[in-house]
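Practice record 12: protein with zinc ion.
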Amino acid sequence: MKTIIKNILVFSFVVVAIAAFFSLYQHAPLQKEEKVRIDTLVSSVVKEEVKSIEVRGDSLHIERNDGKKQVLHKEPQESLTELLRHYNVEPQKISKIAITVKDQGTAFWVNTLLTILLPFLLLGFLIFIMARQIQGANNRALTFGMSRARQIDQKTAKDRVTFKDVAGAVEAKEELQEIIEFLKDPKKFLSLGAKIPKGVLLVGAPGTGKTLLAKAVAGEAEAPFFSVSASEFIEMFVGVGASRVRDLFARAKKQSPCIIFIDEIDAIGRQRGAGLGGSHDEREQTLNQILVELDGFEPTTNVIVLAATNRPDVLDPALLRPGRFDRRVIIDLPRIEDRVAILEVHARNKPLAQDVSLRKVAERTPGFSGADLANLMNEAAILTARKNAKEISLDALFASIEKVMLGPERKSHIVSDKEKKITAYHEAGHALVSHTLPDAPPVQKISIISRGQAAGYTMNVPAEDRQFRTKSEFTAELAVLLGGYVSERLIFNEITTGASNDLKKATHLAKRLVTDYGMSEHLGQRTFGTREELIFLGREITEQRDYSEKTAERIDEEVTNFIKGAYATAQKVIAGSREKLEAIVQLLLEKETLEREEFEAIFASTTPEQASSAS
Ligand code: ADP
Ligand code: ZN
């Protein structure tokens, strides 16, 4: 880019210079000269009004006594004196005029030469520019094979990341502690004959803090940190990736002890030969180069490679062999305690209102990653600033949960009264079933304000994360999913497209109960089908049947049975407490959003018999 601008500048400068040069010989008068005819000149000469005449080639520039300037073109052959004599002007009169003859010779030659030479000059100039550009490309080609890894030098970096900035992830930190010790004091380990680990694989869902942990390891060890995303190795040309890998490791070795962090290693580390058609030469060469580098480390080279992935299953086994990425650190989605801790880390520089309990926020955010939680805190701060408030309230935090989860509210989205009513019955159906079934989680919030794709939503989350889930919980979840559908059908005797997403989720869940969890009574304790990923034009999952046609039919039947059962449960719950459904709908239409307390108040106001008849 810079060179282009420079070229344009040089080019325009030359053009301006040439133009200026020409204008010198353009006889461009500064003052306006009046064009006159010969007889005018002759009569002025006779009247002695002419002060001077300058002859420039064939043009005569006349200055009169009154200061007026005139110009006249004569025939080329005649001289000025001859011309005047022809008109019988007396010689004494002529001699009174100061006649100067400007030598036209050089200007003439320069002019003609330039008109001939200019095209050649321009051509030469263009060739010159082009040559320079090609040279530039060559220079770039030299740096092309260099790695673009970013380096952070821990000793100078002000905002050094340490384990203090990583909340939760206790086990991961413990495992990485060893790496830090290796980096800090390699001799201690070497003197005992221990081998320093070369590669550590950080495995975890996106946003769980893999990059953050890698940085923190470097920060704790005060070692330089090279970070690169695996996809950056790959360019259009075969061999570039490998040369970048070589360059990166060479740079790192000079700075050892240090850490190389390769993000998304699965981009190059996928199983070789797994692709369909086409060669994956470039990827393979890059991968091979990484393996070569890892294998070629001297025992004393103190460079440790941390690589991140969320798909360890697709990695080439060659990467995972001993002496390569033989250590794995698993980073799970944060559990509730960790979520509180992560929220605390990100609340450090934010003023929270007195009543804020981060635990309550954590309770409502199962399945959120560290990045989601960081995002949530940030959204809450933005929301608070926009309201011109000074402290972040619990409401702002809760509102941000939904924003992160479902996208921004679409209040401007105009919904007709009828649609609103349908949405209210739909959500009330979900909520009522979720509240009533003992195995379903309590309702945290219901809303009929549309958000992202959803017309409304019901948030029900368990207070605790659970490792295992039971069949009764799954059947309850199915019933809750169908609650919206059942309610719409019961009230309007009609079904809308709004329930289609619920049905899709329910079907998917029911299928997993049968094929993955062995929860079907009739089909028994086995799984059906194996999933395999084909790496072909991105991602595509195909399922391979390892069962007969007949079994396939029975699986379908069982899935349908699960759904039918859930439908019956939801139907019983909703038909059994119609007046509760109406109460929820009324309140929803009035307030649009109900918090847990408001929702539960509806049930508190009933007599015990009514409450028990509902369950
Ligand atoms: P990954 O590399 O796993 O995709 P990152 O390390 O890039 O995830 O995490 C993104 C952001 O999420 C971090 O910059 C940080 O703000 C936040 N984050 C993730 N995990 C944690 C954690 N355990 N403690 C504090 N912040 C976290
Ligand atoms: Zn629904």
